[in-house]
Amino acid sequence: MTKKLVFGHANPDTDAIVAAMAYSYLLNQTGQETEAVALGTPNEETQFALRHFDATAPRVITAAKPEVNSVILVDHNEAQQSVSDVAEVEISAIVDHHKFNLTTATPLNIRAEALGATSSILLKMFNENKVEIPANLAGLMLSAIISDTLLLKSPTTTEFDKIAVQTLAEIADVDYETYGLEMLKAGTNLATKSELDLIEGDAKSFEMGGKQVRIGQVNTVDIDEVFERQVALEEAMQAEINQNGYDLFLFVVTNILTSDSELLVVGAPVAPIEKAFGGKLDNDRLALPGVVSRKKQVVPPLTAAF
Amino acid sequence: MTKKLVFGHANPDTDAIVAAMAYSYLLNQTGQETEAVALGTPNEETQFALRHFDATAPRVITAAKPEVNSVILVDHNEAQQSVSDVAEVEISAIVDHHKFNLTTATPLNIRAEALGATSSILLKMFNENKVEIPANLAGLMLSAIISDTLLLKSPTTTEFDKIAVQTLAEIADVDYETYGLEMLKAGTNLATKSELDLIEGDAKSFEMGGKQVRIGQVNTVDIDEVFERQVALEEAMQAEINQNGYDLFLFVVTNILTSDSELLVVGAPVAPIEKAFGGKLDNDRLALPGVVSRKKQVVPPLTAAF
């Protein structure tokens, strides 16, 4: 049996890093040979979680083909969010909770559910395979679900995510509300970050109606603090557009305490954006009250409008 | 809760019909409201199985949107093999054992495994959900696995398919080898069929390197009997090309007793076909020794060659 690499999406968030670690652990416990890797270094929130549960970040890779013939994707399925040479290797399995945009050459194993985090699906798979979750891995999976659901407040949150958080918090032996808020705040330390880090840190690319749309997002406890840097942020977004040929760059600034967002937009066309969210851009900005989920509240209305 | 329709691919084979019936039954047993339907009438093999296990064929639909907002796909995932208006409804779940070519607007449930039949995956799901399979449904699921794996002889056959066949044969209380050969032979009664029925009965469309490729397949116990009608078959294939804008029509004639096939080709380009199978077309024909599986032995080498 040959080794397979397991990894989450580029610009990894906590669920992308942790789901790779968790699924690799589960597969290895059931007789396969896999290694969890990552398509980037952990962000500050993920680093906080890794430190707290005494774990090491997965090795970063930039290509798969030099090492393996077969890969396993977690927390993503779209080629443009994956490793650069994903088209040259076999995708043998996918575990994911996103919408699908996938073409494969051969049949494969897929486990997808519309849950709040890939780590929630993995908890089910541990249970189905009757594999025990070590306490520190449970803590990381807990962190991933808290991260993706903003402490169970995002509209992507399902009943099972709530059960999963309680189950994993018990195994990890932490108070998830106290720990969760600490972890989310650790990810909102934006003052020390460059404008490029802010807009690109969690950015993903989407094709919408033939346009290349880049969407970044940051969580904060103070939206005004971010928009004090609006001019420099827009310059950075324009530079990314020029360099990568995007048509549009959207930057979603989310207040994790109030569960509201504000959108900053550079590029064209803006009409589908105004149509999607039912408002007019003012100074390139648009308030998105009650919006916290890119996946559920930003991408679907945009895709429909384009 | 609103009703969802569950259906297999157009030009349904036994697994497409049965997997819809089985998954709908499982979902209804676990509290959902679904109806199994079909995108065409059952072929003679499927009719034999339905008669043998005293079951009724699912109702045929031509569009989903007039009835429901949400559909569940089994035994296929590609839009071009699905209901005509699949783009206008939500795909809420998929159970499939084919390669993927799927784009959705929202997250969904997917269960895919590289097993010999979708009905084998469904047996796992019945077990996981601890739902008992009625004897006649077990007989139909057995028929579907025998059909897709040509009595466990196709290279798509996995160890689990063998276990599944034994498990289901026990529940259905049949000798699967005797029954299976009878059922397969019932599907090879080709003499009474028109050329159009032969080439189109199980045909699927694929996009390969920008070309529209239509691939039909029949099972027989006498390949020569089929090729006695070669001139009329080629006329029918050319008519389908003209009418539907295909670039190529491939017709795979498979001997279920010897597990060999012979290919008949109309359209262009033929170079990728000769490259894929390492031979020269002679009188539009090419022997494919040992080839029985369109999914595993025809589509992948063709896709690679195009």
TrEMBL record, chains A, B:
> Domain of life here?
Bacteria
State the Gene Ontology terms under molecular function: inorganic diphosphate phosphatase activity
Give the signal peptide, or none.
none
Q: Which EC numbers characterise this protein's activity in its record? A: 3.6.1.1
The residues covered by the DHHA2 domain are: 180-306
Which cofactor does this sequence's record say it needs? Mn(2+)
Q: Enumerate the SUPFAM superfamilies for this protein.
A: DHH phosphoesterases
Q: What class of enzyme is it?
A: hydrolase
Name-wise, this protein is Manganese-dependent inorganic pyrophosphatase
Naturally occurring in which organism (per UniProt):
Periweissella beninensis
| Taxonomic lineage | Bacteria, Bacillati, Bacillota, Bacilli, Lactobacillales
